[in-house]
Amino acid sequence: MIVGLSCGMLASSGCTMPWWQIPELCWLLLGTVLLLGGCWGPETLRSRVAGVSAALFGLMLVLALFFWAPGGEAFGGFYRWDGLSILFKRLFLFGGFIASWMMLRSPDGPVAHRVEYVALPWFAVVAMGLMASAGDFAVLFVSLETLTITSYILVSMERDRGTSLEAGVKYLVMGGLSAAFLVYGIALLYGSCGTLRFDEMAGRLPGALAGDMGPVVRAGLLCVMVAVGFKVAAAPFQWWAPDVYQGAPVPITGFLAVASKAAGFAVLLRLLWGPFGGVRDTLAPMVAWLAAASILVGNLGALSQRNLKRLMGYSGIGHAGYLLMGVAAGSAAGVEAVVYYLAGYAVAALVVLGLLGGLVDRLGGAEMRHLNGLAKREPGLAWLMLVGLASLAGLPPLAGFLGKWMVFAAAFQAGLAWLVIVAGVGVVASLYYYLAPVRNMFFESPPPDAPPLELDLPFRTCVSILMGLAIILGIAPGPFMATIGRLLAGL
Amino acid sequence: MGETFLEWAVFWTLAAGAVASALMVVAGRSPVTCALSLACSMIFGAGLMVQMRAYFIAAIQVLVYAGAVIVLFLFIVMLMDLKAEAMRRRGGVALLAGLAVCGPLALAGWRAMAPLSGGGGPPPAPPDEVQHIGRLLFTDYVLPLEITGVLLLVAMVGAVLLCRPGGAGDQEGRP
Amino acid sequence: MSFLEIEPFRIALYVVGALAFVGANAAYLVWVERKAAGRFQRRAGPTEVGPAGLLQPVADAIKLMSKQIIVPPGSDALLFRIAPVMVMAPALMCFATIPFSDSIVARNIDVGLLMIFAFGSINVMAVMLGGWASRNKYAIISAARVVSQNVAYEIPMLLTVITMLMVAGTLNLHEIVKQQEAGFWAWNIFRLGTNPLMPVTFVIFFTCMLAETNRAPFDMAEAESELVAGAYTEYSGMGFGVFFMGEYANIVIGCAVATVLFLGGWGSPVGFLPGVWWFLAKMYFLIFTVIWIRWTFPRTQFYGLLNLSWKILIPFSLATLVLTSIVMKIPRMF
């Protein structure tokens, strides 16, 4: 039945599809079943709930990769089923899959065995999927809120740990502020256009911008963009990211870094190539400035970090900047580059965070000094980590390099040469801080009484597969780019 | 004349009250006063909606915000130790930031509203307002409505999880 | 233009009338309550002032008004003074929409029922603020109890109201009564055809109303054996008096709403006497029941009270809601 529900899509390439065919419904059911089963189910299920969740995520991902075909809409246009949403939904499922795989062996403490910890990512993925498919500001707003509330819970789950609680509270306050901006912006846009529908707004917005209501439209656009900026952690709305990345349990950090950021970009692309399509040229400079600020703040901020999770938070801001460059380019090539970059970033970031998650309790912490001598203790893991960091830094022949190349090329073609120069500065800075842990791993000696690092086979497999993906995406991007191009053809 | 003057007077009283109590929310020293001012602001806002004949929205605003949200808000504030909070002074930076955000918004609103002034009020709400809203919610807007259900479910799970005695990691707390 | 058609005069007239009604009710319901309590406990109740103690409320009112209002040192003076006002003002708003008869209603608003619940919900905030502003440990405990109790009981109450709304299809109290005018079999409480659990719905509503108005057996907020007088501990003179009036006003409103929703409002079961008398008779019968319950049942425990709401009333009210919607949907399917 699950298979049927989730594959219903392939049959429907027409204009409308029945409401029960949207895959989020299936994911929601699975999440609820996991939640209830983990609470009251038989003991055999309760002890394996993380494994079941990972397996189901994998199944859903396979279905999504091989059976989904774009075309159609549901709920009278409130739900879009186009190439953009499909691409991003795959990315979300991938993030959920890896995060729940990491939860199988998250040594972050007793939290790992709680059923909510395993089930809530499902709800988050449902919310993200709906965000990517939104055809109306009402859908966008409520699904965004669902995602942020789920994230608050996941981040602050380890209530006993001060940093986790602090991260949760900071995220909550920042998220509240961003929701206020979003809803205010939506209200202003509604006031000036008289509609919340994306397709109708696309037609009315340019006229409204030029007319009497111009300032209101401008203020509304600004507010919405600020809210999206919060979501993707772009400077100057980035304050929450380092604290949240540091405080959250590692699998959740990975999930947020990958899936939540992707969801933010899904919304951004959806808006700029949907309701804001007519005023994209007005917004592009703003996006470019956001990109420049994010690149500088993220990469320069990361230089002084000694905690790897925090470092990933700052570098995540920098990556948001590179991604925004692709958006600012405003071309089809730019959008394709953004999607490719997101996939490459997801793979590499999950390699680093996954390894960190697997090792953090054996190493004694996530500070850089805890990595001392990793190459001598576990050469294989150290090399995996090296590949992940190198891909994030953008060294060839890895996915990170190609992604940066494509984004830079798109920005350059759009006449944003100054932005490319700023990004170059960012890349140089990032080499320094990404290679700092490498020095710790390879050129420092391990602490004398270091316990052996035991990492079980499934975990090693997971990280190795991710590393393989990072290399394959970098060397042979052809099929992947072809899929992106095909799915984004109608944008 | 009498009717219009009354409407004019009521409007400005309500509007001034709403703005004044909104300012009190940010300027008040004690969080309880701030929360109470927020409730007042909501009620004044509801009054403005009544003046626009949007009775349903007005009643919902009072019921949800003044009656539920602010009450819970006050409840939480009440249970915290507020001595340190009450002493806090707001710095000039906060004032500047507030002005930086509100100033342009107010300007935008002013410039947009200026050509509209004198152009009559908004259209009156339909007489079967409630049925109308209900029908819309369950037909066109059914997807957002259902997502709101998911939102509430998640929030409930989170509230139970984070408030469970003994911390979230407590295995004994299982039902 | 007649005098009554000028808006400000209408409003002034209404406020005076509603205040008089609330004041008279509060004064004489206290008398009724004391007399009834006396009967229940095999004693006479007030007898000294006036025949059968009938002037006792007047004496009490004079006493309360002449007493000094003491604002305890260390309290939040502003909130302390505002709180009683916040109990009374919303109560006055609520009376505006209650149809005492076909023609006696201050404002026939389409969303009248919603308005009553909207303003009724402010009451909690007032009691809470009063308790908090007093800076007295009993008052604060009482304030915390009031909030958790009211939040818990507001849910089943609104669920039963939604059930009734589905049956009525309108929020206009006047309309709701009109629909029940045919005779006592048409009163909502007896309309088992739309929902066989209708009497249960009424009981749930009534129970919630008792809890919302902090009446025994749910008067945890001013449980005098543990909390002195709860949130009102520090209030003296008319501060206390206004709280007290507000409380009785809320009971009157609750019973009036129950009358409208379930007992056919001004509709008469037999056909003589004007409707307003029937309305008052039904309403005062319910109020008497409230008093009756207070002197019959002991006070519940606080956890028992919350359990009753979350584990019994909410599931049952949800069940009646679902059942009603199914019963209403079935005929349309064929």
Brief characterization of the structure:
The complex is a heterotrimer of chains A (491), B (175) and C (334). With 175 residues, chain B is mainly alpha-helical.
Q: How many alpha or pi helices of chain C?
A: 12
Tell me the helix content of chain A.
over 70%
Strand coverage percent of chain A: under 5%
Q: What quaternary form is this?
A: heterotrimer
Strand % of chain C is: under 5%
State the major sheet of chain A.
Answer: 2 strands, antiparallel
Rg over alpha carbons of chain A = 21 Å
Helix and strand sequence of chain C: HHHHHHHHHHHH
Give the biggest sheet of chain C.
Answer: none
Assign the structural class of chain A, choosing from mainly alpha, mainly beta, alpha/beta, alpha+beta, or little secondary structure.
Answer: mainly alpha
Word description of this protein:
With 491 residues, chain A is mainly α. Chain A has helices at 2-11, 23-40, 43-47, 49-67, 83-103, 115-133, 137-155, 162-193, 198-210, 214-232, 240-247, 250-272, 280-302, 308-329, 332-363, 374-377, 379-393, 399-413, 417-443, 457-475, 478-487; strands at residues 73-74, 79-80. Helices cover 76% and strands 1% of the residues of chain A. Chain A has a two-stranded antiparallel sheet with strand order 1-2. In chain A, α10 packs antiparallel against α12 (250-272). The radius of gyration of chain B is 21 Å and the shape is globular. Chain B has 175 residues and is an all-alpha fold. Chain C is mainly alpha-helical. Chain C has one domain (76-333). Chain C contains 12 helices and no strands. In chain C, 44% of the residues are buried. Chains in contact: A-B, B-C.
Compile the SSE list and pairings.
The complex is a heterotrimer of chains A (491), B (175) and C (334).
Chain A: H1 2-11, H2 23-40, H3 43-47, H4 49-67, E1 73-74, E2 79-80, H5 83-103, H6 115-133, H7 137-155, H8 162-193, H9 198-210, H10 214-232, H11 240-247, H12 250-272, H13 280-302, H14 308-329, H15 332-363, H16 374-377, H17 379-393, H18 399-413, H19 417-443, H20 457-475, H21 478-487
Antiparallel strand pairs in A: 1-2
Chain B: H1 2-27, H2 31-51, H3 55-79, H4 83-87, H5 92-113, H6 129-138, H7 142-163
Helix pairs in contact in B: 1-2, 2-3
Chain C: H1 7-40, H2 56-66, H3 77-95, H4 112-120, H5 122-134, H6 137-168, H7 173-179, H8 198-212, H9 224-227, H10 237-262, H11 275-294, H12 302-333
